[in-house]
């Protein structure tokens, strides 16, 4: 009984981070996996603060390989931590 809580894969759990970009008028966020999520987060936050419409185009490491959107369409940005084995 106690062994079911002693997960042998617990030491194999890794973390990865994704940037969630919430666009105006969209029901689901863009989930972007990049090498430096904090840098992308900071860049997108600064674009939200300027409210200047510029084209944002990024290459990512996840299922979405390349993305492009207007910065004035960003409603919110978040960093999400995900655990995987």
Strand content: 35-45%
Query: Strand sequence of the main sheet, in spatial order?
Result: 2-1-5
Unreliable runs, pLDDT <50, ≥5 residues?
none
Number of strands: 5
Order of helices and strands, N to C? EEHEEE
pLDDT averaged over residues: 90
**What's the end-to-end separation, in Å?**
23 Å
Count of DSSP-assigned helices: 1
In helices, the fraction of residues equals: 10-25%
Overall structural class, as computed from helix and strand content, comes to alpha+beta
The dominant shape is elongated
Radius of gyration: 17 Å
Main beta sheet, described?
Answer: 3 strands, antiparallel
Defining traits:
alpha+beta; 5 strands; two-stranded antiparallel ribbon; 3-stranded antiparallel beta sheet; about 40% strand
Short description:
The chain has one helix spanning 37-50; strands spanning 14-23, 30-32, 55-59, 66-70, 74-84. The protein has 85 residues and is α+β, with helices and mostly antiparallel strands.
Report on the structure:
This protein has 85 residues and is an alpha+beta fold. The chain is 16% helix and 40% strand. The model has no long low-confidence stretch (mean pLDDT 90).
